[in-house]
Amino acid sequence: MEKELFLIADIGGYTRFLREQEKSLSHAQVVVAKLLEALMDSAQPFQVEKLEGDAVFLHLSWTAGAKDPGLLAAVRRMRGDFTLKQSGMLAARTCDCDSCSQMHKLTVKFVAHAGEAARQKVGPYSELAGMAVIVVHRMLKNTVPVREYLLGTANVLPLIDATPPAARLDQDFEGIGPTPAYYLDLSGGIAPLKPEIPKAPLLKRIIARVVLELRAMVFRLGLAIPPILKNIN
Fold it and tell me: What pLDDT does residue 45 have?
């Protein structure tokens, strides 16, 4: 068993965002994929364990009481890059489909917990397993009263101590029971993004539309995204 610090970055509003229309759905997949890529690219020193639909499950070797590995800094960097990517896509938007016109409503929230985990192997696949892994996933269903936040359990409280301090909001997680928990409001009083922001130059919008349609086609065909399409904003 290894001591691990677990972190899940979860895109809020994902279920409402996806639609059944073929074109709109493929555009939604592109938007969410770009936002997930932004989160993963800025997650250091955390390692990506796996993608879970609209969320990224990350971990880092750490024992409670050891030196702060930079949890809060990583979370703030990830949220900042998420918002930057989202703003850039809004500025370059030329499509008015339901998915593209609603991307401003997407938010990101984080949950963190520390504990023991073991690497479980089934055939060619492996994943982290243990009660701590279950706890951090159950934390996604909570009663935090703000849209964007970092929610942590008592054993990670020293890592999320900030100004203003984390607010205590004990939770009753399914199958876990009453659990002391603390949250930080990551929005800092900043209003949510608006659907219309200053437009990017025309050429950038044209390139963004071409990349959007190419990546949407890749999703519809079930193919891997070429690196050149991943690296173009």
Answer: 95
Residue 179 makes CB contacts below 8 A (sequence gap 6+) with 135, 153, 170, 171, 172, 173
Domain extents in the chain:
2-230
Instruction: Express each pLDDT in 84-135 by its tens digit.
Output: 999 998 888 888 877 788 888 899 999 999 999 998 888 888 889 999 999 9
> Nearest 5 degrees, angle CA 164-CA 169-CA 175?
145
Q: Which of 45, 57, 42 is nearest to 10 (CA)?
A: 57
Question: What distances in angstroms separate CA 28 from CA 34, 83, 220, one per listed residue?
Answer: 10, 17, 12
Radius of gyration of the chain (CA): 19
d(CA 13, CA 18): 9
- Please determine, looking at this structure, whether the domain spanning 2-230 carries the CATH number 3.30.70.1230: yes
Which of 23, 41, 7, 227 shows the shortest CA–CA distance to 111?
Answer: 7
User: Residue 9's beta-bridge partner residues?
Assistant: 56, 110
* pTM listed for this prediction: 0.85
